Each structure stands twice: as C-alpha cells, then as structure tokens.
TrEMBL record:
Naturally occurring in which organism (per UniProt): Alteromonas profundi
Protein name: DUF2384 domain-containing protein
Ranges for domain Antitoxin Xre/MbcA/ParS-like toxin-binding: 93-141
InterPro entries named in the record: Antitox_Xre (IPR011979), Xre/MbcA/ParS-like_toxin-bd (IPR024467)
C-alpha cells in the first residue's frame, strides 16, 4: 500500500533528492543518473508494468534490464524524465488521495485530452505539463 507521505522523487533518486530539493541539486543528481534499481519500486507503488513505465520515461524495457544487469545508472535524459514523472505522480496522488484514484483518472478519457486518457500523453514533457496544469486546475475548482 502507498503511504501519501512517501516521496516518489526520493525513491527514484535513491535518496539524493526529495520533493523540496533545489533545482541545482536536481541538475547534479540527473547528471549522475539515477540508480536503475529504484525503477522497480516506483513501478510497484504505481502498479505499472515495465513496458508502460519504460514508455513514460522514453526508454525500453530491454534497456532497463541491461542497465540493471550491468549495475548502471540511468542516462541523464532518462533520469530527468523519471524525475519529472515522479514529481507528477506525487502531485496526482496528493490530489486524488490514493494511487488507485490517480490511476483511474489517468486512464479515463477527458475532453482536455481530446477525449483520450491522460496516460496517452505521459511520455512527453508537454504531455506531463498538460496533466500537471489540469490537476492544478482541479485543485482550484476547475472541472476535468
């Protein structure tokens, strides 16, 4: 079960960052790359399969498996995408108050997403920004 106090940014960064970290700390951590073994924890919390999560962070399941086998860190680009996804997951779970409700919303078609599910745009930075804008709007009383 997911505890709303768990910080997904801290989890994916291997403890290097948290949701209150400075942008400079984030830049440094992303440059070094996140530990690939932290991906499994986020997948487990979010109840996502490897293929879906790999798509969200713009890589492939085989690449993640190879990095894990070779005990490598994620590339800076994949680490940055992972950080962005973790931040968005923190926001969504905080608003919807559970992983289940957040995943339900992510997988439900909405007018703001051209009658597609928000999850369909999660792999792009622009799509994540749109999801964030919609969730922040919900917090202020706008309808999704």
């Amino acid at each position: 079960m997911y505890d709303n106090e768990v910080d997904l940014v801290e989890i994916v960064s291997g403890g290097l960052l948290n949701k209150l970290s400075s942008p400079f700390d984030e830049v440094e951590a992303v440059r070094k790359g996140f530990p690939v073994n932290r991906i499994k924890r986020l997948e487990s919390i979010m109840r996502w399969d490897r293929k879906a999560f790999a798509k969200f962070i713009r890589t492939t399941p085989k690449t993640l498996e190879r990095y894990a086998r070779d005990n490598k860190h994620l590339s800076p680009q994949v680490s940055e995408n992972t950080l962005d996804v973790a931040r968005l997951m923190n926001l969504g779970i905080a608003y919807f108050e559970s992983v289940e409700r957040w995943n339900l919303w992510l997988n439900t078609p909405h007018v703001q997403f051209n009658n597609s599910a928000p999850v369909s745009v999660l792999e792009s930075a622009s799509g994540r920004a749109l999801i964030k804008r919609i969730v922040l709007g919900l917090e202020h009383g706008f309808v999704a």
